[in-house]
């Protein structure tokens, strides 16, 4: 089984191909949120690197959020189009799950934090378990100060990962129980998406393209701006 993974929930866009042999090829880029321009060439690139053709794909996995509205729409819409054309099923994985999975060997509680813009973050907490991570809180959206209060109530040491954690790192600088990870831990990974999707595919936990639902946690910016104008 070959899985094509498309990840576009944040400022970074990525794709990967893999299956029973692991991840065969991947590509990631962050160029000014040009998701639509970057995604198609990235798919063509990973197909060439993996030495497979798009028609060989047997499942399409997408990051279904939470994340930036425009980026999510680009990735999920592309995934649905490919899956529909190939007549293959789809798998949706949370962007927060992908962040946490990348740091599953940290040996402490993990908190995935994505910059939601407008002074808010998307977040969820996880604990390491054999072979991966287990989510211990539901995905939520809040202000950085509210997240700081949530962290105070959590026992033990915490590792914060994601671009939201990096953006508001100064807020946690004086905390001895909190560490902020950067570098490769800033964005969800298409490689992690393929790995998690492959485990779900083995359990036949897939859906039809029309059944993929996005996890927004709040209204798109355009709707909020329009509501604000109406209120004025």
Description of the structure:
The structure is a single chain. By secondary structure, this protein is α/β, with parallel strands linked by helices. The protein folds into two domains: 2-95 and 188-231, 2-Layer Sandwich (Nucleotidyltransferase, domain 5); 96-185, Nucleotidyltransferase, domain 5. The protein is 34% helix and 27% strand. The protein has seven helices and eleven strands. The protein has helices at residues 35-50, 69-86, 95-102, 144-152, 163-167, 190-202, 221-231, and strands spanning 2-7, 13-19, 22-29, 59-63, 90-93, 109-117, 120-129, 132-135, 140-142, 158-161, 178-180. The strands form two sheets. Strands 6, 7, 8, 9, 10 and 11 form a six-stranded mixed sheet that branches. It has a five-stranded mixed sheet with strand order 3-2-1-4-5, sandwiched between helices. Helix 3 (95-102) packs across helix 6. The longest helix is centred in the middle third of the chain and has 18 residues, at 69-86. It is globular. Residues 224-232 have low confidence and may be disordered.
Layout of helices and strands:
Layout: E1 2-7, E2 13-19, E3 22-29, H1 35-50, E4 59-63, H2 69-86, E5 90-93, H3 95-102, E6 109-117, E7 120-129, E8 132-135, E9 140-142, H4 144-152, E10 158-161, H5 163-167, E11 178-180, H6 190-202, H7 221-231
Parallel strand pairs: 1-4, 4-5, 6-10, 10-11
Antiparallel strand pairs: 1-2, 2-3, 6-7, 7-8, 7-9
């Amino acid at each position: 089984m070959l899985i094509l993974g498309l990840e576009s929930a944040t400022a970074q866009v990525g794709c990967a191909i893999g299956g029973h042999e692991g991840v065969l090829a991947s590509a990631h880029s962050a160029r000014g949120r040009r998701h639509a321009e970057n995604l198609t060439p990235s798919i063509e690139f990973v197909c060439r690197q993996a030495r497979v053709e798009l028609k060989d794909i047997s499942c399409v996995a997408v990051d279904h959020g939470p994340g930036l509205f425009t980026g999510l729409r680009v990735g999920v819409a592309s995934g649905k189009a490919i899956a529909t054309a190939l007549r293959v099923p789809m798998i949706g994985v949370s962007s927060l799950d992908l962040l946490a999975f990348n740091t599953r060997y940290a040996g402490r509680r993990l908190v995935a934090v994505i910059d939601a813009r407008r002074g808010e973050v998307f977040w969820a907490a996880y604990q390491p378990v054999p072979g991966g991570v287990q989510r211990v809180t539901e995905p939520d959206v809040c202000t950085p100060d509210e997240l700081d209060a949530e962290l105070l109530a959590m026992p033990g040491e915490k590792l914060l990962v994601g671009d939201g954690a990096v953006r508001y790192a100064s807020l946690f600088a004086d905390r001895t129980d909190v560490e902020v990870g950067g570098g490769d831990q800033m964005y969800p990974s298409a490689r992690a998406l393929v790995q998690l999707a492959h485990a779900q595919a083995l359990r036949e936990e897939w859906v039809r393209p029309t059944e993929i639902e996005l996890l927004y946690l709040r209204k798109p910016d355009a709707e909020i701006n329009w509501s604000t104008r109406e209120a004025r």
